[in-house]
């Protein structure tokens, strides 16, 4: 029973601190001092120590010499969002090359949506543009089974969904109509195995996001 209580307390502490990091209440560089957190959260130091260790293991905090645990810079700004997208699009570009060069099959029927259909589908499901991007990238990467790529993409999208600031969320929402059009164009190019056209669409998608981010 005692172990269950400690586990419940540390999970609760973890959720509270993670949410404070996500909202910016705990800013990057803030020290996670056990005694102060114990007083603030009205918990003993043992579950707090474990929760901080969990935060560090999940990449939300780091241990520094002579300072103890501090909050990592987790907030995704427009600049860091574009860096993340560039990395993932490099994976997609490699997959496009293999799909076209090796004549690999890919299921593109589910992407035959016009803008209004795409918007309506995502509105009904309560999903964000992040989900549309993620599903698109996963679909392409299926052509080149690479567990490392999939793991990286999964972790990056988890970070986007949890820690993107409002500017990034607004950018995704503004770009969704164009994204739906571009993804349709990209799959049309893949259907004809036109690597040049598919890569051109992919580069256009990235350029649009960059320009849209700083309007």
Q: Per DSSP, what share of the residues sits in E-state strands of 2 or more residues?
A: under 5%
What is the CATH topology of the largest domain? Four Helix Bundle (Hemerythrin (Met), subunit A)
Overall helicity: over 70%
* Annotation field: number of helices: 9
Estimate nothing, just give the exact number of structural domains.
2
Radius of gyration over C-alpha positions, nearest whole angstrom: 21 Å
Strand order of the largest sheet: 1-2
Write down the secondary-structure element order: HHHEEHHHHHH
- Shape descriptor: elongated
Runs with pLDDT <50, length 5+? 1-6
Estimate the mean pLDDT confidence: 84
Keywords: DNA-binding, Transcription, Transcription regulation
GO molecular function, one term: DNA binding
Pfam families: GntR (PF00392)
Protein name: Transcriptional regulator, GntR family
Q: What's the helix and strand layout?
A:
Elements: H1 2-23, H2 34-41, H3 45-57, E1 61-64, E2 68-71, H4 78-101, H5 115-125, H6 129-141, H7 147-163, H8 166-191, H9 195-213
Antiparallel strand pairs: 1-2
Explain what you see:
It comes from Listeria grayi DSM 20601. InterPro entries: Tscrpt_reg_HTH_GntR, WH-like_DNA-bd_sf, WH_DNA-bd_sf. One of its GO terms (molecular function) is DNA-binding transcription factor activity. This is Transcriptional regulator, GntR family. With 215 residues, the protein is mainly α. It has two domains: 9-71, Arc Repressor Mutant, subunit A (Orthogonal Bundle); 78-214, Four Helix Bundle (Hemerythrin (Met), subunit A), CATH 1.20.120. It is 71% helix and 4% strand. The chain is built from nine helices and two strands, in the order H-H-H-E-E-H-H-H-H-H-H. A two-stranded antiparallel sheet has the order 1-2. A hairpin with a 3-residue loop joins strand 1 (61-64) and strand 2. Helix 6 packs parallel to helix 8 (166-191). The radius of gyration is 21 Å and the shape is elongated. The protein starts with a helix and ends with a helix.
């Amino acid at each position: 029973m005692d172990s269950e209580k400690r586990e419940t307390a540390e999970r609760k502490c973890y959720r509270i601190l993670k949410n404070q990091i996500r909202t910016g209440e705990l800013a990057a560089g803030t020290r996670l001092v056990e005694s102060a957190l114990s007083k603030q959260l009205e918990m003993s130091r043992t579950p707090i120590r474990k929760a901080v260790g969990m935060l560090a293991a999940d990449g939300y905090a780091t241990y520094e010499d002579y300072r103890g645990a501090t909050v990592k810079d987790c907030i995704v700004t427009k600049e860091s969002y574009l860096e993340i997208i560039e990395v993932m699009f490099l994976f997609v570009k490699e997959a496009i090359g293999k799909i076209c060069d090796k004549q690999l099959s890919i299921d593109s029927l589910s992407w035959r949506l016009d803008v209004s259909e795409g918007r309506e589908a995502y509105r009904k499901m309560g999903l964000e543009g992040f989900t549309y991007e993620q599903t698109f990238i996963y679909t392409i990467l299926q052509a080149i089974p690479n567990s490392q790529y999939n793991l990286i993409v999964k972790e990056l999208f988890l970070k986007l969904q949890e820690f993107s600031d409002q500017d990034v969320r607004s950018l995704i929402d503004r770009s969704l109509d164009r994204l739906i059009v571009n993804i349709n164009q990209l799959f049309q190019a893949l259907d004809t195995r036109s690597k040049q056209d598919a890569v051109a669409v992919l580069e256009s998608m990235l350029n649009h996001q960059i320009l849209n981010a700083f309007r």
